[in-house]
Amino acid sequence: MKKYLAPILAGLFIAVAVSQAGLAPTAKIDQSAPDFTLTDNNGKKHSISEHRGKYVILEWVNYDCPFVRKHYNSGNMQKLQKLYRDKGVVWFSVCSSAEGRQGYFEGEDLNERIVRHKAAPTAYLIDEDGAVGQTYEAKATPHMFIINPEGVLIYAGAIDDIPSTNLDDIGKAKNHVQTVMDAAFAGKPIPVKGTRAYGCSVKYK
To answer: How far is the C-alpha of 72 from the C-alpha of 63, rounded, in Å?
Structure first.
């Protein structure tokens, strides 16, 4: 019996190993951020690797989410986008909402919403099939990720430490993105690398 069982088990091991080898690596703090290529609202393609040598901030977005509206209606998100873009940082807003689900927009409707929110990212990237969101394990909108010039993920989590939809809480909150970026630019150790993201669940298909 053993002589027949051994080849079967070996075959199962090989099958599992091949299957796992085909999986895309997930994003891990202090490791190289997985590269990707996505198309923006204007039809232009963007990737992480083309911006090696710069900080890259990823912001998962859903304009219909009340937690996202809190940061856009107050001007907080746009303020951060402009602040760091002026410092040479690449800022990608990423939408992983599937077609037909909350937060999915296309064409002129999408462009109009970007203008209406006065959004100022480097680009708004469309991840309709959710592949990039799943790779980064983006769970909420907003969910923030910061990649350093060497391509290493140095922060993943919430935008700040008060998980609410109340605009008045923004001034009271500790902004994790700003804390991490200030430390990084000053050459200091990153004081917080991972926090629990809060917001609406990402509307994957």
So the answer is: 8
